[in-house]
Amino acid sequence: MRDLSPLPGALDLATSIRTGERTARDVVEATLETLSSKDRSIHSVTYLFSEEACRQADAVDALRKQGKTLPPLAGVPFGVKDLFDIAGHVTTAGSIVLRSNPPAKQDAAVVQRLRQAGAIPVATLNMDEFAYGFATENAHYGTTLNPHDTSRMAGGSSGGSAAAVAAGFLPLSLGSDTNGSIRIPASLCGVWGLKPTFGRLPREGAYPFAASLDVVGPFARNVSDLAASFYIMDGCDRIPEPAVAGSWETLRIARLEGWFADNLSKPMVRALESVCAALDVTRTVSLPEVATARASSFLITAAEGGNLHLPRLKEQADSYDPATRDRLLAGAMLPADTYLKAQRFRRWFREQIHAVFRDEADVLIAPAVMGEAPRLDEPTVTVGGKVVSARANLGLFTQPLSLPGVPVLTVPVLVSEGLPLGLQLVAAPGCEEKLFRVAWHLERAGLAGCRLPKSAA
């Protein structure tokens, strides 16, 4: 009987394949069997690339038998949010609207780079339709459930990508983030997630949502795997090791206060305090006009997304999820002046956060969400003392930080009990390595990491 226990991390798995302890074919077949038999409990997968994945695995094993040097992620299976092109398959972006499109002629750019590093795509993963949401409640493909408690949200829109890693089904996955779509599900599912600097990783072959905000990035179960996948997708020939990249102690680290200190659950407050204590954080920083930054990010997203879809909405409106359709139509109707004002504010806000990184801090710490994952049958959070919709407000802390295009790493804080909690580490554009240095320290100190659900442990 095949062992379907959770796979080790990506780099450890690649080492076991390189040394002959396991074959790539065995790893891929076990992964496909796991996804086929176990994913029905959380609904993270939309399609399996079974034949193609096995062929690529056989090619990896053949190289090893020939004595060839294997690339760094040889034989490592990964999944992609259902908006990344995979050659020979139709990219649906979580919708039935695109089903009649021709198959993609080539992989998305970042998928190509991971393949070149030996990694093997095995599945597309569930998402909110056209990435418009924070819940991964999809009218066409179902709702992705949180592996730690299937009565709760996985978050979105990259919920399938986060849940598959959190459940132990995959060591790596890819998502996209416009207003928090990597950071929110990473936080609620308890995995590491990275929203890179805007424009750093190529987006070719990833179906767009809001072109001036979209980024693509990875999920993983440990910092080394997260860093490896990021640097490979960034086109690096060598993978820096966070452990030797430099000491976190030389960095100026501060906690974001004001907007980012309100509306927190008691467990989140304790998580923030424990991490700040471990990093000797004593200074706090406030960003100006955060509410306006959040509103601007929302308006830019709505306008760009709405106008992208408007031509198709005029002909196929009934094929959209009504909730998605109505928001896209509303965005398309926004006055041009409103969009321009939001973009002008964006330039000003970007200058403000750049000044903070120049004068006050190298890394900022903030909560990713208010607390634990909301229940599916009671999808609410408390903001300003009022119970409000979770789907509309889970981005309270992520949307403002989308606007300036800075890199943000989501840290799964280890708590003694209860559901996962996530924090955001924020740095200046292009300074992802600083985030990895802090994250690696927190992981090594035992304060952060990915806990497998009790059902998978």
TrEMBL record:
GO MF terms here are: catalytic activity
For the Amidase domain, which residue ranges apply?
A: 26-435
- Domain of life assignment: Bacteria
Q: Entry's Pfam families?
A: Amidase
Which InterPro entries does the protein's record reference?
Amidase (IPR000120), Amidase_dom (IPR023631), AS_sf (IPR036928), Carboxybiuret_hydro_AtzE (IPR014087)
Q: What is this protein called?
A: Amidase
To which species is this protein native? Acetobacter aceti NBRC 14818
